[in-house]
């Protein structure tokens, strides 16, 4: 049986018609690459993002959006329509165990859970009307991170890395600190079909104590730096020779770029991770002097250090191996514990960024994959179920209106009701603050142009300062 070799189109262009086809191909490829380094589509308000992800779903009803009717009707049946799809069965209405007060010149309400963040409300833009589509952790987390709850798609951080690149050639454009490995896992910070260099570089994971969370293989005890450099140069020469014959290969080129970045990171990343030279005042600001706040405080301090060194997107996850903010029961005990761990570090981050002049062009985004129901779940009248129908996220710095509240859920806090903001709208807005048009930030894959917002999304310009 004979075997027939079928040349690729690139090979045909290169080898036929005296090579004139290859000249045309090279010209087209050169034109495609002529844009050089990534640039924003228009003047940005923010240069970087720090995403504080509260894994599991903090309750908007117990943190930043009080509901007087919920307090009044505690224990009564919910009077409105329940969502067609719910995660679990719930009972009657449950008022918040915490008291709310108004803070700052803006008068934004914050519960007793967040006394330190409450002192920063004049810098915060609350969005009380976010809504998604999935009541399960996996789908909701993927939706928030990638814009899709059922397909493998590039993460928000990867899209931003692709659109803007890094401002420091010795550090990655996207770093994720102690990410959860549950509910989508690596897909929440992956690059999917975007170049491999766009994916998030993880520092440990949610099950790793932060002091042990390091970039894997950041040291090479077997080879000196000179030997590694020689090895990489040889590999690069071989692959350039291959690319010259076979034509452009995005996956291979991205992998080569990742090798080079990993080599440069051997010096830059340990320096960025080293917080020992921070002043005692700064360390206390983040709560590093308290064993309760120190773990998340170190994560937030590292986020600031990475952001000021040119990392475009830093994600900091508050979670453990039990899905930290998922209080189907023991709401009073565990929401109080969770808030205690993050409240002072988050406020410290906002104050530190502001004092250093970084908050004006750093967008800080806080939130979980969904909120919680106004109705009770679990024994002891002490839990809330998942609620993607309406919940709160907030932003600070980076060109958003300070001391501002936008949107609202209904009178009991179940459904987004006023100035509704879908997850796609949030993504479009974050990209716009970075100078990126979500409809133009596309990548050709499998015969179509993909984008973070798919075919949806509206920029919420009312949030802009």
UniProtKB/TrEMBL annotation:
<dbReference type="InterPro" id="IPR010869">
    <property type="entry name" value="DUF1501"/>
</dbReference>
<protein>
    <submittedName>
        <fullName>DUF1501 domain-containing protein</fullName>
    </submittedName>
</protein>
<dbReference type="InterPro" id="IPR017850">
    <property type="entry name" value="Alkaline_phosphatase_core_sf"/>
</dbReference>
<dbReference type="Pfam" id="PF07394">
    <property type="entry name" value="DUF1501"/>
</dbReference>
<dbReference type="InterPro" id="IPR006311">
    <property type="entry name" value="TAT_signal"/>
</dbReference>
